[in-house]
Amino acid sequence: xxxxxxxxxxxxxxxxxxxxxxxxxxxxxxxxxxxxxxxxxxxxxxxxxxxxxxxxxxxxxxxxxxxxxxxxxxxxxxxxxxxxxxxxxxxxxxxxxxxxxxxxxxxxxxxxxxxxxxxxxxxxxxxxxxxxxxxxxxxxxxxxxxxxxxxxxxxxxxxxxxxxxxxxxxxxxxxxxxxxxxxxxxxxxxxxxxxxxxxxxxxxxxxxxxxxxxxxxxxxxxxxxxxxxxxxxxxxxxxxxxxxxxxxxxxxxxxxxxxxxxxxxxxxxxxxxxxxxxxxxxxxxxxxxxxxxxxxxxxxxxxxxxxxxxxxxxxxxxxxxxxxxxxxxxxxxxxxx
Length: 337
Ligand code: UT7
Fold this sequence. Notes:
337 residues; alpha/beta; Peroxisomal Thiolase, Chain A, domain 1; 5-stranded mixed β-sheet; 4-stranded mixed β-sheet; 10 helices; 24% strand; globular; binds oxa(dethia)-CoA
């Protein structure tokens, strides 16, 4: 019997309308457009400003678009996993809230947090349900409202992050296309370099944690940078070697969009040029769980059946990994214009 693989059969995306430019940010913290472009490669990022709107609202926009593009009715969806580090609230899961808002009534689902690798880990987890034959239409969301935990007084972190959401549909495929292989890693000893100090069971919210600004992102940039460069390149090159993928037959690397210098270093180690790298960092910044599906959303029109794609991510945890996908459909027929 032919092997069942999980194929991506559609992509949806959403970024909120407000754009925070580097020049605007330079009025809030001591920074410049030149510094941010040179050290990070971000020009602007989208921010969800609307009062009362959360991660689930952006995710629902992406899911609704996905349902429309794939001609799927909400009742047909049987699972939804949401990769997220900024859930609407500690509980219930944002996946439940998205299902409610999108009218998805016959699915089960949950959130998955693996820092900036959340979407990739959720994709791999979801693929196992499809491969086992138990689930036929599975939505994987990557969504984050990073502006809810960014300290706009901190120049070390505020230029980096943006808000956004993306979603893909996974369905069974027996023609040899789909998710072929994955490599995943975590190393909890790296957790001290990038985390949200308070708000969990270790340091529940109180006046002191608020005064100390411990509900914002805390990052030591350099150790994270070094680990990201080494590990993203390592898993990507290992994936190429495992499947005889060469720079000539790789259509795209989809790297987590954290820093242009990390992306360039990964591409260099893989022997590929920028033409073969999906890039959205300059206009969206680091949307954490949403970077990978937003790349797919932006580049969908370029993708054809059989294209070799490697996704590579690294983030808080530390958590990192890569996935090898053989693309399943002609993206030019359905992509956003
Ligand atoms: O997505 C999750 C994973 N996260 C990442 O992958 C992020 C990895 N880290 C990075 O991307 C980089 O480390 C940062 C972009 C965060 C920082 O870049 P860097 O080149 O490592 O800068 P640095 O932290 O070593 O700081 C160099 C200098 C410092 O000044 P002094 O001490 O040399 O005088 C900083 O205070 O740059 C200063 N600096 C800034 N200057 C202008 C830091 N942020 C800024 C800023 N504008 N926004």
